[in-house]
Amino acid sequence: xxxxxxxxxxxxxxxxxxxxxxxxxxxxxxxxxxxxxxxxxxxxxxxxxxxxxxxxxxxxxxxxxxxxxxxxxxxxxxxxxxxxxxxxxx
Length: 90
Prior knowledge:
Order of helices and strands: EEEEE
Strand order of the largest sheet: 3-4-5
Number of strands: 5
Distance between the termini: 37 Å
Largest sheet: 3 strands, antiparallel
Oligomer: single chain
Structural class: mainly beta
């Protein structure tokens, strides 16, 4: 589960969007390999994809060009990571 809080501003900090919190189902998928260089040293290479879902802020707290409060920020939160590691056995 991912609890996301969305808030921010547009152009300058006086143009704030309202804060909004939502809970999404988050998921992750990963894979990796390890190569033993010696009996005590191993090198790792891994990949991980994380998806925390879509989120949006509250309505704009400022008047836009049309004089309305009808805007929200929207985002899709994902991460894609490649990791290189080294392990030493004592």
